[in-house]
């Protein structure tokens, strides 16, 4: 076998290993699936967690893998929310799944149009541009009260059954199962993308843009592509919120929505997809529990938690669970148990033949 063939085989094996699901991942999704039957009384708050997780996942695609920081991600979320609401209210698209795709397409279209503004300049410039775009979109929605309902929100939304079979109920059972399936499908797609050569090139751009350009990695269209995809994900998250609550308002376009999404991602960690999911669980349950105990000071305790994360260090926290992760990876690789131990060559005079 030639050297090039061996190199291609090694690269193919590496990508195959990256695509393999670990036991912890499988356990995570099985636990999420089990909550459909084990936690029926909490489906309303679990649906909120799923929507937050999807929004944080979309933000992680640009921040954790492309290094694009944003304080205006609520713009795409709100556009998706209003798109789903208008489609349902005026019976333009009655089927929720199809309407959700349209919401994602609307978010992607706006993300593509604004990406050329956002990708210019440094991190501070991008931060201010994203914030400005989100504030502009919110003000337009506020002024166009004839279309969006303004400060009163978009009312009179009636949702059809999902796929014509599953009706939305007051207890959120259908909404949670529907949202969880959408999150899983989009997560699988995102997982394949970040593990592909395209995803690795994004990480190279994030790590060192000059070196990435020097080795021939084009930056502009890759960043435009991932920014558009993240906007589509945020649009789907907004559409889910409207469909599961039958209501949307200017709050979906607010700065607080963008800031909370960034906070969720900081809690869970960036650059490994599951950070947004775990952060959404911690943030929403902490918000629910702390606000019940101290309604006026729950933000203080969330801030204190963030300070502790900074002081302890995320690397140190990760080292505490590293042995468990290595054991799970060892168990998952069942072929390693059947593989005979490698025998290292010995030097002359150390048990080997001279």
TrEMBL record:
CDD domains listed in its UniProt record: TM_PBP1_LivM_like
Primary site of residence: membrane
Domain of life: Bacteria
Topological category with respect to the lipid bilayer: Multi-pass membrane protein
Spans through the membrane: 21-39, 45-67, 74-92, 98-119, 175-194, 220-241, 262-286, 298-317
Subcellular location: Cell membrane
InterPro entries named among the record's database cross-references: ABC_transp_permease, LivM-like
Keywords: Cell membrane, Membrane, Transmembrane, Transmembrane helix
Pfam families documented for this protein: BPD_transp_2 (PF02653)
Protein name per Swiss-Prot or TrEMBL: Branched-chain amino acid ABC transporter permease
Species of provenance: Rhodoplanes tepidamans
């Amino acid at each position: 076998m030639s050297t090039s063939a061996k190199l291609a085989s090694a690269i193919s094996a590496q990508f195959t290993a990256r695509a393999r699901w670990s036991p912890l991942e499988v356990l995570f999704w099985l636990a999420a699936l089990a909550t459909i039957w084990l936690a029926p009384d909490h489906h309303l708050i679990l649906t909120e967690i799923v929507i937050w997780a999807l929004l944080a996942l979309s933000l992680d695609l640009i921040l954790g893998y492309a290094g694009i920081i944003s304080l205006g991600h609520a713009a795409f979320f709100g556009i998706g929310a209003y798109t789903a609401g208008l489609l349902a209210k005026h019976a333009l698209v009655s089927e929720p799944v199809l309407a959700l795709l349209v919401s994602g397409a609307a978010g992607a279209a706006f993300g593509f149009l604004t990406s050329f503004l956002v990708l210019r300049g440094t991190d501070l410039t991008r931060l201010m541009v994203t914030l400005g775009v989100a504030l502009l979109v919110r003000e337009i929605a506020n002024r166009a009260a004839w279309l969006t309902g303004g400060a009163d929100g978009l009312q009179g939304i009636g949702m059809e059954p999902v796929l014509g079979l599953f009706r939305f109920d007051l207890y959120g059972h259908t909404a949670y199962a529907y949202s969880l399936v959408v999150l899983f499908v989009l997560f699988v797609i995102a997982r394949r993308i970040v593990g592909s050569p395209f995803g690795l090139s994004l990480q190279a751009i994030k790590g060192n843009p000059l070196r990435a350009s020097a080795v021939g990695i084009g930056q502009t269209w890759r960043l435009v592509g991932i920014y558009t995809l993240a906007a589509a994900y945020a649009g789907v998250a907004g559409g889910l919120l409207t469909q599961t609550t039958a209501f949307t308002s200017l709050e979906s376009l607010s700065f607080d929505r963008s800031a909370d999404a960034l906070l969720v991602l900081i809690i869970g960690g960036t650059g490994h997809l599951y950070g947004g999911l775990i952060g959404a669980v911690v943030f929403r349950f902490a918000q629910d529990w702390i606000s019940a105990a101290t309604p006026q000071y729950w933000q203080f305790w969330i801030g204190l938690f963030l300070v502790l994360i900074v002081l302890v260090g995320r690397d140190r926290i990760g080292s505490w669970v590293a042995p468990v992760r290595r054991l799970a990876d060892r168990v998952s690789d069942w072929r390693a148990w059947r593989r005979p131990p490698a025998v290292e060559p010995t030097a002359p005079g150390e048990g080997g033949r001279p």
